[in-house]
Amino acid sequence: MGDILAHESELLGIVKEYLDFAEFEDTLKTFSKECKIKGKPCKSAGGSVRDSKSLIIQKDLLAAFDSGDQKVFFHLWEEHVPSSVRDGDCVAQKLEFYLHIHFAIYLLKHGPGRPDKQELDERISHFRSYLETRGAALSQTTEFLPFYALPFVPNPMVHPSFKDLFQDSWTPELKLKLEKFLALIFKANSTPKLVTIYQENGQSNKEVLQQLHQQLVEAERRSMTYLKRYNKIQADYHNLIGVTAELVDSLEATVSGKMASTMLRASLAPVKLKDVPLLPSLDYEKLKKDLIWGSDRLKAFLLQALRWRLTTSHPGEQRETVLQAYISNDLLDCHSHNQRSVLQLLNSKSEAVRQYMARLINAFASLAEGRLYLAQNTKVLWLLEGRLKEEDKDVIARENVLGALQKFSLRRPLQTAMIRDGLIFWLIDTLKEPDCLSDYTLEYSVALLMNLCLRSAGKNMCAKVAGVVLKVLSDLLGHENHEIQPYVNGALYSILSVPSIREEARAMGMEDILRCFIKEGNAEMIRQIEFIIKQLNSEELLDGVLESDDDEEEEEEEDHDAMEADLDKDELIQPQLGELSGEKLLTTEYLGATAGRSHRRVARNGRRLLSPGLRARKPRTCHTPQGRIPR
């Protein structure tokens, strides 16, 4: 009781502070009146003093903003906005970036007449210094990328990339954001002591316990992984010691003229790989019948099982046998002229069927012979292009359609068809907001765009919307996903061979934007950008490739097979109890009459089933776009 009385005045002050903060006005009046009647003083928690001081600071910051006094503003900003907020809060970092732009261009917007050159140069120099220090953290963000060229542009007022900065509405909107931010910051700083006590001793303890538990689980998992690695290394060590001892003994024996031991020869002999059994053949007539007339759930499970058979088979004879069986039995009805076909499942009303059909086509397209099979029917391309533009609900379905199209773009006639169908315009429109795209969609969209831009017809399409294309590609140069950089570089280098696109690029200050990345990029990135700048400053009227690259004769192609793991990610359907799926579904319900022998025959002779006139060529693959830039 004595301890309570000793701190009673402070406790009452804490209660009073909270009631005032939460705006319990009537309760606060009653509480204060009762404390006065009982003669109990309330020690101030300092809330009202803090509030009045906060208002003064806010007014000073806004006054400095309006007058363009950046020294006063950033002195107050750094003194009163906590460093943890300035360094760790993305909203604060973005706001600070725009505030630096505001002060850098203040004289251009608000100065009477022609601005003083020395003062303007000082402000631009201050902004450049910020970009190289604190501002460097946002250099990989698409939103801010164009502003890194601002210090190098002679007259930003007429530059198309900065026209929004000089709109009358830009400064008031920024000031409104600043006012809201300051109100939140200073309100957070004046958090009542009662709330602080609760947070420190209540909810935060639960969060700490949860974090500790999660860390413990992760530590145990890592411990088991390391233990397994240790046991394997230890076993390998003992085997190595044994082989070494045997080797020493055998060498000594060999010096004496004796033969090396049998055990040593066995240990040094190459290990013979086990034969991989071929998968049993299937009744494809029954399979295709159920794919067309079965229930949507059955269709989805069959499409999944057929895809798994392709993706999980061993590369080599087993996978080739599976693929050739699919092709020889025209699994996807690429040669069918019936009104209802397996290909039509791409437009099914069922989301699962649409997605799983797209996955299966993408799996086919991942293999050179699969691409050749699909390319024989132009309807496949039309269906994929239509699905790509219409699919807005299922992200994975669209990813797989896009993946298949990118792999199709390795074939020249299909490239021509995609360009003619205006796919470049769709890609450019989609890439305007790269942060809204999954990594898969972003990477395959940029890779597909690059492949199409390698053709003269594709470059001519880009020339129709040169400003938009260049803006999109220059924004993508600074994207945080570094996997797309070689494809962006390849597309830029290719389209800059067109004189009209070069002129547009020079007008928008493309060289200044490119030079910003030379400071930050790795050696390969720098090398590619230097070639792009050289192309930008070229005066050639036509690139040598432009006049001859529209010949539709198919080049010879090396097999390029890459079965990516994403084909089987995030499965949409799961079997219920007693429901068959995967290989078990295929071998239980659709086993062929001649298992084994027919498959082996297909594996050996399957290539004869393909049209002899259609030969594969070396893919313009998205994996080596830098090959299109001179070394």
Automatic annotation (TrEMBL):
Residue span of region Disordered: 547-568, 596-631
Name by which UniProt lists this protein: LisH domain-containing protein ARMC9
Record's compositionally biased regions (Basic residues): 597-607
Pfam families named among the record's database cross-references: ARMC9_ARM (PF21050), ARMC9_LisH (PF21051), CTLH_Armc9 (PF23138)
The ARMC9 CTLH-like domain, residue ranges: 56-187
UniProt keyword list: Cell projection, Cilium biogenesis/degradation, Cytoplasm, Cytoskeleton
One of the GO BP terms on file: cilium assembly
Domain LisH intervals: 418-537
Subcellular location: Cytoplasm, Cytoskeleton, Cilium basal body; Cytoplasm, Cytoskeleton, Microtubule organizing center, Centrosome, Centriole
Primary location: cytoplasm
GO cellular component: centriole; ciliary basal body; ciliary tip
Subunit and interaction comment: Interacts with TOGARAM1, CCDC66, CEP104, CSPP1 and CEP290. Interacts with NDUFAF2.
